[in-house]
Amino acid sequence: MRFILATLILIGLAACENVGDDGIVDVVYIGQSEDVFEQGLRIGPAAQLVRASTQQGLVRLNAPGEVVPGLAERWIVTDDGESYIFRISEFDLPGGKRLTAEVVRASLVRSIARLDGTSLGLDLAKVAEVRAMTGRVVEIRLKSPMPGFLQLLAQPELGIAPDVARTGPLSSSRSENVLMLEAMPPELRGGPVQPDWGEGLRTVRFQSLDAETAARGFDQGHFDLMLGGRVQDLPRASTNTFSRATVRLDSAIGLFGLDVVGRSGFLASADNREAIALAIDRDAIAGALGIGGWAVTASIVPEGLPGVGADETERWPGLSLEERRARASQRVSAWRSGGGIGPAISIALPEGPGSDILFDRLAADLSAVGITAERADKRAGADLVLRDRVARFSGARWFLNQFNCRVAPRVCSQDADFLVSLAVDAANPAEEASYLAEAEQTLTATNYFIPLGSPIRWAQVTSDAQGFAENPWAFHPLFPLTRAPI
Fold it and tell me: 426, 436, 435: which is closest to 398 by C-alpha?
């Protein structure tokens, strides 16, 4: 019997060895089947990967999340940090057009204008002017220095518009609900012809499926890479003893917490809303989900980011969990002594086994201070709603822009927005940091958002798959999977 079992295991492992030998890397993104093909201004993460792959901009991201050349061969930043000068690869486009600095400038100007009123548009507020200086040189001038600007410029929405050209680095073709992506030769992207460039390349077969189907397919060896894992689906990750796949957690930066959208009863008071934040044991959430090293936080803007003042301190200095809960319990008791009923609050979380674990943990924490938590069937009408977003760039302004009244009117502060606008035009980095710190304090005082920690993003990767790396943006470009040298 042991011999038969060992033989079956060896046969299974041998079969795994052949995965990917057909020259195709099978990638599945957790979502819905049409997510890959979304068009327009506001698209989901699966479609963003496709757009970044087929419509690159001046710069793009590599597998570790670093900024690398896209259409720009190279660039310089002036000493004052207010001017970025890019030298592009000028080349002929299909249809007889030519990619020039003026074409790139016009596409960027249109994209920035279309993004007005979105959170990404707010992030781009420092852009003062885009100029075509010569046939191959584009200059972007800023109102003031911005350390994370190149990271922002690499976002998929700032790729060259599709009505201009498909600039690669991948070409795509659709077959039903599957997208086939192939690396474009360098000469089609403005580079020189390279002999033997195409040897050993892989085609990426990309699709999106619901979490249960994707996880089952990955476990059965149908996929080399599963992307898009979030907290709600973390328990679905394969832990098969004989699996040659690993679960890879991104050390993502961003916002993961609860928007307080209900404002009646107990939640009408900022102090009472803070009682919820005081009661939560964030470390216990990490333990319940089984994710060691999760970066917990009670602050909107994490420490150590550009634009965060050096004198920033923890939110409740010196208070233990027991002391925080004692303070929260006092507020609940005061509410009840004033004739308040309950309190009971409803929490909306995405469907999935990970969300069930998160809700049970939150419910236990709130029960410890006398608050009853109920699971909301849908977001509409819930008191608390999960906010789960990865940052576009590592600056304090991104975090504060997420709560701007133009994009999040139910959890915003006009005073905080005004301070952020002053930071955009600040005379120097110290003044900017001061405005941003004051804006965060103002927004925190409203207690419209209850931070829990960093966004939870995970993937599963077979040992045969090459070109994947964890990164703080939880953005995993498809081009490196092709093994193309450039």
Answer: 436
Band of residue 140 on the pLDDT scale cut at 50, 70, 90: very high
Reference 394, options 302, 305, 295; nearest CA is: 305
Q: What Å distances lie between residue 92 and 107, 166, 181, 187, 277, CA to CA? A: 16, 12, 22, 10, 57
CB 229 within 8 A of CB 460: yes
The boundaries of every CATH 3.10.105.10 domain in the chain are 254-453
Q: The tokens 């009505």 sit on which residue?
A: 163
Angle at the Cα of 41 from the Cα atoms of 188 and 30, rounded to 5 degrees: 85
pLDDT in tens, 318-341: 899 999 999 999 999 999 998 878
Residue 452 and residue 108: Cα distance in Å, rounded?
A: 36
Q: If you count DSSP H runs as helices and E runs as strands, how many of each does the chain have, helices first?
A: 13, 20
- Crossing angle (nearest 10°) for helices 270-279 and 429-446: 100
- What three-state secondary structure class fits 30? strand
Class of domain 22-55+168-251+456-486: alpha beta
Cβ atoms of residues 60 and 70 within 8 Å: yes
Tens digit of each residue's pLDDT (9 = 90 or more) over 19-70 = 446 899 999 999 999 999 998 888 999 999 999 999 999 999 999 999 999 9
CATH topology of domain 254-453: Dipeptide-binding Protein; domain 3 (3.10.105)
Helix (H) or strand (E) holding 227: strand 225-229
- Any idea what the Cα angle at residue 293 is, between residues 315 and 358, rounded to 5°? 75
For residue 95, what pLDDT is reported? 66
CATH 3.90.76.10 boundaries in the chain? 56-166
Rounded Cα–Cα distance for residues 256 and 234 (Å): 15
Q: Would you say 477 and 63 are in contact if contact means Cβ atoms under 8 Å apart?
A: yes
- Measured CA to CA, the distance from residue 460 to residue 243 in angstroms comes to 11
Helical (H) or strand (E) element with 130: strand 127-132
CA-wise closest residue to 225 among 20, 54, 10, 43: 20
CATH 3.90.76.10 applies to domain 56-166: yes
Count the Cβ atoms, other than its own, within 10 Å of residue 293: 7
Closest by CA to 102, choosing from 88, 112, 116, 92, is 88
| Collapsed DSSP state (helix, strand, coil) of residue 445 | helix
CB 147 within 8 A of CB 398: no
Residue 47 CB contacts under 8 Å (≥ 6 apart), including other chains = 35, 36, 37, 38, 39
Predicted TM-score of the model (pTM): 0.91
